[in-house]
Amino acid sequence: MIRLVLLALVLACTHEAPFPGTKDDRIVVVIDDKVKTLDPRFVSDAVSVRVSRLVFASLASVDNAKVIPEPQMASRWDQDPRDPALWLVTLRDGLRWHDGVPVTASDVVYTFQSVMDPALGSPLRDAYAATFESVTAVDPLTISFRLKEPLATFLTDLVLGIVPKHVVEPLGGRFDGTRFVGCGPYRLLSMDGKRVDLEAAPVPKAAVVPLHALKVGEEAPRALTAPKTRYLSFVTAADEGTRILSLLSGTADLLQGTISPVLARELESNRKLAVDWAPSIAFSYVALNLRREGLDDVRVRQALAYATPRETIVASHLAGHATLATGMFSPLHWSYHRDVATYPFDLPRARALLAAAGYGPSRPLTITMKVSTHRLRRAIARMIAEGWKQAGVQVDVRSYEFSTFFADIRAGNFDAYLLDQPEPMEPDLYRWMLHSLATPQKDRGAHGAASVYARYDRRFLPPGALSEAVSSDPPCAGWPTLATRSAIQNAVFTAFGDPTPYSTANRMGYANPQVDCRLELGRVTLDRKKRKTLYDEVQASLALDLPVIPLWHAHTPVIRSRRLLGYTALPNQRWGGLVSASLGAAEP
Known about the structure:
The protein is α+β, with helices and mostly antiparallel strands. Helices cover 29% and strands 19% of the residues.
C-alpha cells in the first residue's frame, strides 16, 4: 500500500501542469506512445490517429460497431444517376470550428486539395490523388467529388478529417505548433510530448440524436452527440508496468489495449478496476515469402498452417480472448466469409503435406521467421516456431527493433514474418496487400530463382491476366481486355514520368490472376451484396493459397476505474466511446 501511495506521488509529479477540471469531470486515459500530431492529413501512427479523431471530424466515419460508413459532418450524399463517378455531399447546417467560425464547403475542398498537393507532403497523397479528379464547392454547404472512375470505396475515403482553411492556409498549409483547430466533439486545450488535454466542444443547438448508417440520398440527423464528460487527458507512459500502476493508484481512469492479455487477466480480481474484453477487427498473421524456394509450394504453406498451434497460443498468451481468423476480416465485418478452408492444429497432416512436397528428415525445410522486439510477439513467434519444428521444419526466430524489422520486410528480406493489421476496415485492403501489381519489385525479378513467383513479370500487366483460365471464368470474362488497356496506360504514364501509384504492400510476392480480377471488380462494384460475393470468392482463394497464414482477431483488454461508466470500446479500437462515457459512483 505504501508503495502505491509513493508511486501515485511520483506519477503526479511527472506532470508539469495540473490536470484541467476535477476528478469528477475529467477522464484520464493512459497511452503507450506520445501523440505526434493531430493534423488528420499527417497522422499515421495509431495513437495519433485515435486522439486526432476526437478533435477533427470527417464527412463520414467508420467508428461504429458495424464498421460501415455513417455520416458525421455530412447530412447526405448523392451519386449522380447518370454519372456514377460524380458525387454530391452536403454538410450539416450549423457546424462550427472550435474558434467559432462556421464550417463551409470551402474547408472540405481545401482539405482534400491540400492532401493531393505534392508541396504539402501528406503521406495520404498517393491514395487520394489516384482516386479524385477534382473536388469543388457547389455552394456553401455542398461539395462535388469527381472521381477518376466509379469507386465502391468512395464513402470510406470520406473519413479524412477536415481542417479549417481560414486557420491553416495563412500559415502555408500547416498548423502552427500545437494550435490544432477542428470541429470534432472535443477541442484542444494543450499538448506536449507527455500529455494531451481536451475539452468538450459546443454542439449545434438542435436535439442531440444518435447517428445511423446513411443510404444514398437519405437525410441524416441534424445534430452530433454531445460529450458527457467535460475534459479528457491522454497521458503517455511507455512502460507497461507504469500504465498499470497509474490505474491502480487512481492517477488514470482508462487503459485500452496496451497491456498483455495475461496481465489483464490477473487484474480481473482487483476490486478497484473493471476488466472488459472487446472483440476487435485487428488481424494477426504470418506472412510468407513466396519468392523463396519451398514457400512457393502451396503444400508447404498449408503444412505450416496445420503446424501452427493457434488454439494453444490463444489459450496461453492471449488468455483465451481472441477469435480464430479465417482471413483478414473478422466476423464483426460485413465482408466476412465463413465458408473457407481452415487449418486446425494437425501435425500428421502437416508432415504428410511436407513429405508430398519433397521435404523430410533427409531434406528439411529451413525457415527464418522475423519479428519485432515486442515481448508478446516474440513469445508468439517462438510458439509458432515450436509447432513448425514438431512438423519437421528447421526454424530460426530472429527479433529486431521495429525500424530494422520493417526495413527488411519492405526489402523482401525475409522467409516469414509475424505482424498485425490493426484496423482493416475496407475490403479493398486485399487489393492493397495482395494484388500482383502491389509488389515492391515491379520488374521481372530474379530469373534464376527457383520460385515461379520470382520470375513473374509484373511491371504493368497482372501475371496470367490473358490466360484462358481467366477468360473462361464468368465474373472475369471481360477483365483481360480491361487489364490490357490499363497496362498500356500504365506503361505510357510511366514513360512520361508519371507512374500509376500502386501499393508496395504485397511483400509476399503473391500472384493469382483470378484474385486480381475480383479485387479490381470489387473496387468498382457499387452494390454491397455484389461486392461481398466477389470478396467471398477472394477469401476462399486466399484460404487455399495461403500467402499469409491467418492467426486471430485478438480481443481488446479494456482496464478502467470502476467510476468510469458508459464506455464502449469500438471494434477498430478508436476512442469514440469516450464521448458517451462519464464518471460516477464506483460500481460494486
